[in-house]
Amino acid sequence: MSLFLSRLSRLRLVKPALVRRSSSVSLLISNGFSTTSLRQTPPCSVIGARPCGDDLGGLIVAYADTHAWTELDKMVRLELVCNSINHGKTLTIGASHGWVASLKEDGTLCLQDDLNPYASYTDPKRIPLPPLVTLPHCQTKIITNVSMSSSSPEDDEDCVVAVKFLGPQLSFCKPAGKSSKPEWTNIKIENPCFYSSRVMFSKKHNMFRMPGYGGHLIGSWDPCNPSDGPELQSVRKSEHLVESRPTGETFLVKQYKQLAENGEGVAIMKTEFLMVYKLDDEGNAVHTRDMGDLVMFISMSEPFCVPSTSFPGMYTNNVYLYDYDENGCVDVAGTTFDMASAKGPLYSPYHIPPQDIGN
């Protein structure tokens, strides 16, 4: 684990020289787009955990508005930040709204808020879901990502969890639905352009949406009545589909990666170029270098946007990238591409979105 931490020390996004300890998380009053009396926490990235014995570690995060690591007194299981610790018996497979999804060997999926620095330190929430069901000619061992329609899977009856697998299967579940026992609704996607796509939930359309390979189609599924045949929208380019809830805009992000080697000679997939497009309701994708004051966060968690004015200190008009091989910022307006690459591997590449805290 110490090697894992040292490998991250060269990143521009976070600076180990500014590591500080904290027993609590300070909150910033912002959210100028909300009419409710809510406080919001700044976005943050899960960096890892410092081992403290008994397979536990102190959670380390980096706040987007300070660009510094903070080691919290919150204890988390090390297997959640490093899948290799328990020999793959429990794997983290994605995150959404600050909830991390883990998968056990028996196919049981669990939602938990352990890696959310704003959740309870002493009473973490665990929401077990029923064992996954594999459709004929599909697989459920390799998962592309996880998405949720709301941030309250424990008590929101309408909250739907979507799990996208590599291949044609897409599965939905309501953890707090009215039925006595939650169950999976499984669909088999016929169009192969969606087989390797990542799913996201659009609050604007109230649909789960996926960009097709090559960026020519966007498929949409109704969370209340999913079917094998999605609504299709034709577009020109796409890799990541990102919705800005504060402004109601939808962006398509084209990320170009190439095989490269890090400083230790280990093969990684390095981002060489990135382009951002604004998508209108007719499916027209227009290249832009200006997202206004928005900051975009793309990781192995569900992507999101935050106004930079809400949390002074963030890099405005930037895309924060974080995956298993690299971590850094890209200035959308920049004429030259600049992306900091980590030594890798990064074991828990999740951005945590702002959390609403009631007064």
UniProtKB/TrEMBL annotation:
Domain KIB1-4 beta-propeller: 87-327
Pfam families: Beta-prop_KIB1-4
Superkingdom to which the source organism belongs: Eukaryota
InterPro entries: KIB1-4_b-propeller
Protein name (record): (rape) hypothetical protein
The organism of origin for this protein: Brassica napus (Rape)
